[in-house]
């Protein structure tokens, strides 16, 4: 899997988890609306994180991973804040409250970093 594929997968899983777990995020009342809301949020997050990429490009030491995670968390929080304003205009996505924004950013960045590290570890194991 390419680096961009890992990023997209991490963001998609992170947005889905945040939308499903956090009570302050409303995706829509029907399944189609919820799926479109997740896709809209994922699209915005993927585009903006592709423009300003903050994250590892493979396996990195823990201190570097923590620093990249912190900066990426701030980036994701700002994007979720944008989604709280933009979401109701383009889909049924509603994000309420700064606490929800911060938790959604934490879930999204954590999922992204976890999947990035796991998939790069699997690829290294396949090469050996």
Keywords:
128 residues, mainly alpha, 4 helices, globular
Structural summary, described in words:
By secondary structure, this protein is mainly α. The protein has one domain (3-53, 60-123). Helix content is 77%, strand content 3%. It contains 4 helices and 2 strands, in the order αβααβα. The protein has helices at 3-21, 31-51, 62-90, 98-127, and strands spanning 25-26, 94-95. A two-stranded antiparallel sheet has the order 1-2. Helix 1 (3-21) packs across helix 2 (31-51), helix 1 (3-21) packs antiparallel against helix 4 and helix 3 (62-90) crosses helix 4. The longest helix is centred in the C-terminal third of the chain and has 30 residues, at 98-127. The model has no long low-confidence stretch (mean pLDDT 84).
Largest sheet: 2 strands, antiparallel
Please, how many helices?
4
Radius of gyration: 15 Å
Q: In terms of structural class, how would the helical and strand content be classed?
A: mainly alpha
User: Which stretches are low in confidence, meaning pLDDT under 50 for 5 or more residues running?
Assistant: none
The helix/strand order is: HEHHEH
Quick one: overall form? Answer: globular
Our measurement of the CA-to-CA distance between the termini, rounded to an integer number of angstroms, reads 16 Å
The strands making up the biggest β-sheet line up spatially as: 1-2
Query: Helix proportion of residues, in percent?
Result: over 70%
Give the number of DSSP strands: 2
Strand content: under 5%
Oligomer: single chain
Q: What is the arithmetic mean of pLDDT? A: 84
**Number of self-contained structural domains:** 1
């Amino acid at each position: 899997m390419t680096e961009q594929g890992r990023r997209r997968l991490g963001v998609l899983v992170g947005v889905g988890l945040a939308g499903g777990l956090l009570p302050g995020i409303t995706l829509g009342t029907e399944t189609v609306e919820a799926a479109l809301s997740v896709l809209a949020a994922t699209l915005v997050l993927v585009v903006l994180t592709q423009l300003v990429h903050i994250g590892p490009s493979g396996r990195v030491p823990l201190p570097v991973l923590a620093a990249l995670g912190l900066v990426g968390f701030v980036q994701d929080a700002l994007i979720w804040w944008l989604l709280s304003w933009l979401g109701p205009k383009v889909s049924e996505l509603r994000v309420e409250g700064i606490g929800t924004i911060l938790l959604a950013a934490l879930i999204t960045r954590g999922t992204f970093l976890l999947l990035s590290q796991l998939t790069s570890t699997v690829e290294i194991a396949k090469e050996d």
